[in-house]
From TrEMBL:
It comes from Kribbella orskensis. Keywords: DNA-binding, Transcription, Transcription regulation. Residues 8-107 form the HTH araC/xylS-type domain. InterPro entries: AraC_XylS_family_regulators (IPR050204), Homeodomain-like_sf (IPR009057), HTH_AraC (IPR018060), Tscrpt_reg_AraC-type_HTH (IPR020449). It comes from the Bacteria. PROSITE patterns: HTH_ARAC_FAMILY_2 (PS01124). This is AraC-like DNA-binding protein. Gene3D superfamilies: Homeodomain-like.
Amino acid sequence: MNSTDVFAAFVEVVAESLDEPATKGADLARRAYLSRCHLTRVVTAAMGESPSAFRRRVLLERAAYRLLAEDVGVLDLAIDAGYGSHEAFTRAFSRAYGMSPREWRREPSRRFFLAAPSGVHFHPPAGLRLPARKEARGMDVLVRMVEHHVWLTGELIERGSRLDAATLDRPIELSVEGIDDDVSIRYLLDRLVWQEEMWLASVADRPFQVPDCEQPVTTPISELRTRHADAGSRFVALVTALNEEGRFDESFVDTTCEPPRVFTYGGMVAHVLTFAAHRRSLLIGAFYTAGITDLGFGDPMHFVADGTPS
């Protein structure tokens, strides 16, 4: 277990033990499956505080927050923070915040964070807030969402290859009025792929024949896999370039519309993600009905954070 893993394990056990005021440093080490000496050495080096000092500070921050947000007696807060008496808690609180708990409570606009080298603080109502591991701009997150969309679409196509034609073409009963009427697994997979192809053609001012929605979809899964491998990678590359060059607010003329219309690149990406999320959710449910459940809910949360599937 490297120092990053030790730090993560320690923060997790501290968060889990906030409502256990009698917890000691040895208890934290045991829960993190580490010796107390090793935990103390690594955490102190990484966070600038010993494990015990870190936990005491977080509990004081929680007490300071609760003084502002809850109608709880000071003695109750003292006990919850691990202090044996009102007096001991008041002394510790006054040293940390420069005033007594009662004085603090009269100023409801105060910030309860205490200075900490690690940047880890109590986060209401009962968690911890960790600093960002790296700078992430809003549009960087958008790129990650597009990467997740393309990855998950590929996984959905792969799951579709496990199904027979009858299951692929079975109508999906749950739908939204006015969006993709009379849908099936094959229909939605096909729609996800040609949505990528259509917008790639539009921004490149190339012709694209929008499929006739009145006609049944018969596209083989093998063809969708090949087309998505090409269009998906090109769509990610396009969005990445737009982000790096700061061009999301630029406009382009979509000549696939009649009459042609003007859209921004950012608006186009938002459109793709919005409607794709609806279709992917329907597919997740349809696959679940068909007995394929290994994609979970298709949630992008973990993928956006660290690149791992949900």
